[in-house]
């Protein structure tokens, strides 16, 4: 028997960044962080209510995941559909972890959110009768996906909201990063320390932006992986900031892998080309190298099974055969139809050297959407007074253990509208008075040079199929990651967020000894009834995580200040 190996030291996360000194202080009523669909709609709804709101985004206005969305927005608009069916489909996909009340609110309010987009000037694809054209994606029992520009739905949503925000005169601070929350001695969030990002990544012109409320709409954390469909900025900044501010985060292990990411070699890194599920919704099928269908017999919905099922089936096929990809065959749809319905995807495939119209293209599962996030209700309330979260950064219970296709932008819009209404009703009028800056101390940040190794380790240990051994190896890499030496930079902020997210992901995946939804453990197959719970994490002053199980619908899971 060889020597016994000691368990790796549990990684600690950063609890406060080493902030640059504030050179200025300003006040507004609400700060919205992020400019995807959820952030833009929150800011727009607040502005329309007469509230003073400031949007900050670390890139340009409209950057983020929304504009990359291809499929569309799910809503009950067809004559053969109803909210009960949309509710059922979402609950089935969520594999027992959805909050039914939150899902009911989503599917009930989704049509009104779509109507508002149209009223704002969104150019949706229309059917011959003038109503929005509808298509189907995996897990849906009816055609209920509204789309725009064929496969440019997210870009059209972004265009619409950005133009409406400009018309409303909302203040926007671009290339500005939220560093840490400003809090009172009792833990109430009263603003943010922010800084401008210079061309070289240095942080300049730091200041304190005071507000009655801070709304996080920063998106997900796909870039914690070496390769993902999400854009470069999706590094989990908002989740990490919320954790440092005292909020709980939940179900971070529930990362959805999209089954059809264009495979461009084993060394591919960064943002990857997504081939929308809507391509399969129109009739494309997954096949192996011999042309045999992968999903036939694997699920009653075959190629339109929920994403977790399709991704896991592909992963099992790749393990069995030793191959590194399967093929998506859309040739039967015809070149003219593909060019009209999916112009962006056709162009992206051609740029990569593949012709979707004439040949099956190589695909494999890739990190795509993060179902976990800051523990919040659908109105955006977290357990920290003054701090709210909407969109992909939030864990509201809508998506459960696996998001139903095209529910994400819909959820962002619905949650944004609800959050804005709540804030307008509850916040005092006018911006808060200037205050002496709270003393802020930092514990450090992560070295940006460690980020690549963390991404590779996360992809290897926390991919489509996981094991305790692989997850333990990931925690070892995280524990050994070096801290920053020198001044805080934008790259260090992102590296710190990636390290925090990966630590939470590994902790949650190790703690959940079952396979549920998009979380799959080969050493713990099948679901277990006792694990139909939410896994919530908080951090102590030393940076160590504390995890608790939260029964669904338990008091405190969705109400501000009592969690």
CATH fold-level label of the largest domain = FAD/NAD(P)-binding domain
The best one-word shape is: globular
Q: In CATH, what is the homologous superfamily of the largest domain?
A: FAD/NAD(P)-binding domain
Rg from alpha-carbon coordinates: 22 Å
Strands ordered across the widest β-sheet: 7-3-2-11-20
Largest pleated sheet = 5 strands, parallel
Query: What's the total count of β strands?
Result: 23
What value does the average pLDDT take? 91
**Termini separation (Å)?**
48 Å
Quaternary organization: single chain
What is the total number of structural domains? 3
Q: Which secondary-structure class do the elements indicate?
A: alpha/beta
Helical segment tally?
Answer: 13
What is the CATH domain class of the largest domain? Alpha Beta
Describe this structure in words.
- With 563 residues, the protein is an alpha/beta fold.
- It has three domains: 285 residues, 3-Layer(bba) Sandwich (FAD/NAD(P)-binding domain); 108 residues, Succinate dehydrogenase/fumarate reductase flavoprotein, catalytic domain (Flavocytochrome C3, Chain A, domain 1); 81 residues, Methane Monooxygenase Hydroxylase, Chain G, domain 1, CATH 1.20.58.100.
- The chain contains 13 helices and 23 strands.
- The strands form six sheets. The protein has a five-stranded parallel β-sheet, with helices on both faces. A five-stranded mixed β-sheet has the order 21-19-13-22-23, covered by helices on one side.
- Strand 2, helix 1 and strand 3 form a beta-alpha-beta unit.
């Amino acid at each position: 028997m060889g020597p016994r190996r000691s368990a790796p030291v549990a990684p600690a996360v950063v609890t406060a960044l080493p902030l640059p000194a504030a050179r200025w202080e300003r006040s507004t009523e609400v700060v919205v962080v992020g400019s995807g669909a959820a952030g833009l709609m929150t800011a727009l709804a607040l502005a329309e209510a007469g509230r003073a709101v400031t949007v900050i985004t670390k890139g340009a206005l409209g950057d983020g995941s929304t504009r990359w969305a291809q499929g569309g927005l799910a809503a009950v608009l067809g004559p053969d559909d109803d909210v009960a069916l949309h509710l059922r489909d979402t609950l089935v996909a969520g594999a027992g972890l959805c909050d039914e009340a939150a899902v009911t609110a989503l599917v009930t309010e989704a049509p009104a959110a779509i109507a508002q987009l149209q009223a704002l000037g969104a150019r949706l694809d229309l059917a011959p009768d003038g109503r929005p054209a509808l298509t189907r994606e995996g897990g849906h029992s009816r055609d209920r996906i509204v789309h725009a520009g064929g496969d440019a739905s997210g870009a059209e949503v972004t265009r619409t909201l950005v133009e409406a925000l400009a018309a409303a005169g909302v203040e926007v601070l671009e290339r500005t990063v939220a560093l840490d929350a400003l809090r009172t001695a009792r833990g109430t969030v009263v603003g943010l320390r922010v800084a401008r990002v210079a061309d070289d990544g240095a942080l300049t012109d730091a200041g304190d932006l005071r507000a009655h409320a801070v709304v996080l709409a920063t998106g997900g954390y796909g870039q914690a992986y070496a390769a993902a469909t999400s854009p470069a900025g999706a590094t989990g900044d908002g989740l990490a900031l919320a954790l440092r501010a005292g909020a709980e985060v939940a179900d971070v292990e529930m990362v959805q892998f999209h089954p059809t990411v264009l495979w461009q070699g084993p060394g591919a890194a960064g943002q990857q080309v997504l081939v929308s599920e809507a391509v399969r919704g129109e009739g494309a099928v997954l096949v192996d190298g011999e042309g045999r269908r992968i999903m036939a017999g694997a699920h009653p919905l075959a190629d339109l099974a929920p994403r977790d099922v399709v991704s896991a089936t592909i992963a099992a096929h790749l393990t069995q055969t030793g191959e590194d990809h399967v093929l998506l065959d859309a040739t039967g749809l015809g070149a003219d139809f593909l060019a009209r319905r999916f112009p962006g995807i056709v162009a992206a495939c051609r740029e990569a050297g593949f012709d979707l119209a004439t040949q099956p293209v190589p695909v494999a599962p890739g990190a795509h959407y993060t179902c976990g996030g800051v523990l919040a209700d659908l109105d955006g309330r977290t357990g920290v007074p003054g701090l709210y979260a909407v969109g992909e950064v939030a864990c509201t219970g809508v998506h459960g253990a696996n998001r139903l296709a095209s529910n994400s932008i819909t959820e962002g819009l619905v949650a944004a509208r609800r959050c804005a209404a709540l804030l307008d009703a509850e916040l005092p009028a006018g911006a808060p008075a200037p205050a002496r800056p709270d003393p802020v101390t930092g514990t450090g940040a992560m070295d940006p040079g460690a980020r690549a190794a963390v991404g590779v380790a996360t992809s290897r240990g926390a991919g489509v199929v996981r094991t305790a051994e692989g997850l333990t190896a990931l925690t070892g890499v995280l524990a050994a990651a070096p801290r920053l030496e020198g001044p805080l930079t934008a790259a260090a902020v992102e590296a710190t967020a990636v390290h925090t997210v990966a630590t939470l992901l590994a902790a949650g995946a190790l703690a959940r000894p079952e396979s549920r939804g998009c979380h799959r453990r080969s050493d713990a197959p099948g679901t277990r009834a006792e694990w139909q719970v939410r896994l919530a994490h908080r951090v102590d002053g030393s940076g160590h995580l504390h995890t608790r199980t939260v029964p669904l619908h338990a008091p405190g899971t969705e109400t501000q200040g009592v969690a």
